[in-house]
TrEMBL record:
It is a multi-pass membrane protein. GO terms for biological process: amino acid transport. The lineage of its organism: Bacteria, Pseudomonadati, Pseudomonadota, Gammaproteobacteria, Pseudomonadales. Belongs to the binding-protein-dependent transport system permease family. HisMQ subfamily. One of its GO terms (cellular component) is ATP-binding cassette (ABC) transporter complex. Part of the binding-protein-dependent transport system for glutamine; probably responsible for the translocation of the substrate across the membrane. It comes from the Bacteria. It is found in: Cell inner membrane; Cell membrane. It comes from Pseudomonas fluvialis. It holds the Pfam family BPD_transp_1. CDD domains: TM_PBP2. The chain crosses the membrane at residues 12-30, 126-148, 160-181, 288-309. This is Putative glutamine transport system permease protein GlnP.
Amino acid sequence: MIRKHRRTWPWHLLTGLILALTAWGLWYSTSLISYEWRWNRVPQYFVYQAEESQRAADYGRIESITVEGELANVILSAESGGEQHLSVASDSLQLAEGDDVAEGDLIGVTRHWAAGPLLWGLWTTLWISVLSGVFGLLIGLVSGLCRLSSNPTLRDLSTVYVELVRGTPLLVQIFIFYFFIGTVLNLSREFAGVAALALFTGAYVSEIVRAGVQSVAKGQNEAARSLGLTAAQSMRHVILPQAFKRVLPPLAGQFISLVKDTSLVSVIAITELTKSGREAITTSFSTFEIWFCIAALYLVINLPLSHIAGRLERRLGKSD
């Protein structure tokens, strides 16, 4: 039987048309409020040329100035007898040869490229996400196994933890961790933010792990025990590898949510990506441009995570 080839290009064309209409609708909406787009103000919040002032260290005079391209090499002779050599941008020179200088006088500036607030905010979001994700995975794995334990105390405590964390908003947990626990234990805001995110993520990972382990047929554990493996060995070598393949998609989704949840730690003055964006808006007045850039940066983080998780899931699926 010959399968009939289905043409897909009309559907791709329809997709492009819908996206184009969405973009037009966005542009038209902003035109109704007379919004003026200023994309030229945005790049400086990613990278910019920082200026560092070069000043005279002592009283003296300028002996010579040698210009080499964009740099000017300045030699100052001090009254104490020493010399000071400075390299500054040639277009920033404030004095000429033979001029007298006092201690602290500005000679010029040096320029170098530096990361802007949005890049620093992106870096903060990344390391907070990684640390919270690692600790959340460990907490969730232990808690999930405790929920399956035959020990009533371990099972009850893990259940209380999961239900308490999942039943309260993350924002409230961050406030409690920082203003109450953090104050009592003298914790830094970064530590409090990572801890709150890790505990929040761990509660959801715990349920994912529990469901994954319970989805493995009981016969697998019984067969492993019949071969002489202990309960711990059976869980480690037989049950968990199979459960991991099944829980990978929800785990990936949970870690993607974690990256977005890091925006909430801005309420305790951690300058991550969202807070950096708000600060950039106050100085640039480019509200829509900055928020679109922030959304794009979150996509830059999360889309590769989704792609890697999908490839790993397919690769593990082939090994069954």
